[in-house]
Automatic annotation (TrEMBL):
Name recorded for this polypeptide: aspartate transaminase
Organism: Rhodopseudomonas faecalis
Catalytic activity: L-aspartate + 2-oxoglutarate = oxaloacetate + L-glutamate
Taxonomy of the source species: Bacteria, Pseudomonadati, Pseudomonadota, Alphaproteobacteria, Hyphomicrobiales
Subunit structure: Homodimer.
InterPro entries listed in its UniProt record: Aminotransferase_I/II_large, Kynurenine-oxoglutarate_AT, PyrdxlP-dep_Trfase, PyrdxlP-dep_Trfase_major, PyrdxlP-dep_Trfase_small
Gene Ontology terms, MF aspect: kynurenine-oxoglutarate transaminase activity; L-aspartate:2-oxoglutarate aminotransferase activity; pyridoxal phosphate binding
Length: 381
């Protein structure tokens, strides 16, 4: 059996969602909203299923969607992409990440990865024969530092994988950190694979900035997005890869043997959605920020120290001042069985030297769901 995969546990998201089902718990673990998603986008998809193309679309994605992605990023970030040479549609960001890593990494290459790390990166780096070089980010700010980057970048560095906004820590990185990372990528001739699936989910007026837009990064950055997050339709699994033609061409060679294509009717609906007026996106942020505040203030009232969430569907709490004498993992196991609320231990996002006192809650839920979870947790600390 393949040693990279045989020894892996089931991902924490699946494991926790199963525990939530087994215990009849409210699931604030895995990140998904509990409403059906934007009705107009779903109607466009339904119409495309009934009246549109249901056969293999073009391997790179339907032209309307590739054009919509390019126009969307031009509009939001002033980034100019050639839709036919620099944009590819994949089955979710998960596939986009796998295609990008396999396209770039060769045996012996070092790949810089930040902890907390999203779970799909390390196994795919290792499958490609790459050597992960882990950088530990520190709570509560989780910022990049010159010293930390200087310690890991080397002439063997082939790539860096950077998740911004950062899941699970809910950080939206400022330009200063992007410029720092860009400087190292250029000094060491490294490619940046940027997982930007949470790009539209930012709060308090913070704006996501793509690394691809930082001077000097245009031709060495692979930008990855996900319609699942942009439109709160996480099950749709429509992802995008945007990169200069020499990078995109190789990622496409991998994509053709991972999934080859992605359902055409959902692509039609995502193309429609990306063209929505700014107001839609701003309203989504406002509603999610309201849910964030509802959960944050409820948890604070119970006594949980809440760490500020700048973006994503998540907020984190720090257990260390509570004197509970248990790890984040033990705490999550206890609350799912005793209080019937599921959350995710942030230590699951580390391979070594984990932060073991931080727990992630998903707030992308109806008020009634948040209130019911808070009620259940009311004497948890
Ligand atoms: N990267 C990050 C940081 C994520 O949080 C997620 C899922 N929420 C993904 C990738 C995977 O996205 P998709 O569901 O489009 O595969
Ligand atoms: N990205 C989602 C989260 O962080 C989960 C995706 C998955 O289940 N693989 O909760």
């Amino acid at each position: 059996m393949n040693k990279v995969f045989a020894g892996l546990p089931v991902t924490v998201f699946e494991a926790m969602s199963q525990l939530a089902r087994d215990n009849g718990a409210i699931n604030l673990g895995q990140g998904f909203p509990d409403d059906p998603g934007p009705e107009d986008i779903r109607r466009v998809a339904a119409d495309a299923v009934m009246n549109g193309n249901n056969q293999y679309p073009s391997m790179m994605g339907i032209p309307e969607l590739r054009q919509a992605i390019a126009s969307h990023y031009h509009h939001w970030h002033g980034v100019d992409l050639d839709p036919m040479a620099e944009v590819m549609v994949t089955s979710g960001a998960t596939e986009a990440l796998t295609a990008s890593i396999l396209a770039v990494v060769e045996p012996g290459d070092e790949v810089i990865v930040f902890q907390p790390v999203y779970d799909s990166y390390l196994p795919i780096i290792r499958q490609a024969g790459g050597i992960p070089k882990l950088v530990r980010l520190e709570p509560p700010h989780w910022r990049l530092t010159e010293d930390a980057l200087r310690a890991v970048f080397s002439p063997k560095t082939k790539a860096v994988i950077f998740n911004n906004p950062l899941n699970p820590a809910a950080v939206v990185y400022p330009r200063e950190d992007l410029e720092l990372l860009a400087r190292f990528c250029q000094e060491f001739d490294a490619i940046a694979i940027c997982d930007e699936v949470w790009e539209h989910v930012t709060f308090d007026g913070l704006q996501h900035q793509p690394l691809l837009g930082i001077p000097g990064m245009r031709d060495r950055t692979i930008k990855i997005g996900s319609a699942g997050k942009i439109f709160s339709l996480t099950g749709w699994k429509i992802g995008f890869v945007c990169a200069a033609p020499p990078l995109l061409r190789v990622a496409a060679k991998v994509h053709q043997f991972l999934t080859f294509t992605t359902p055409p009717n959902l692509q039609v609906a995502v193309a429609y959605g990306l063209g929505k007026a700014d107001d839609y996106f701003l309203q989504m942020r406002k509603e999610l920020a309201r849910s964030r505040d509802r959960l944050a203030s409820g948890l604070q009232t119970i006594g949980f120290p809440v760490i500020r969430s700048q973006g994503t569907y998540f907020l984190t709490v720090d257990l260390s001042p509570l004197g509970l004498n248990e790890s984040d993992e033990a705490f999550c196991r206890r609350i799912v069985t005793e209080y019937k609320v599921a959350a995710i231990p942030v230590s699951a996002f580390y391979e070594n030297n984990p932060v073991t006192s931080v727990v992630r809650f998903c707030f992308a839920k109806k008020d009634a769901t948040i209130d019911a979870a808070l009620e259940r947790l009311s004497d948890a600390v």
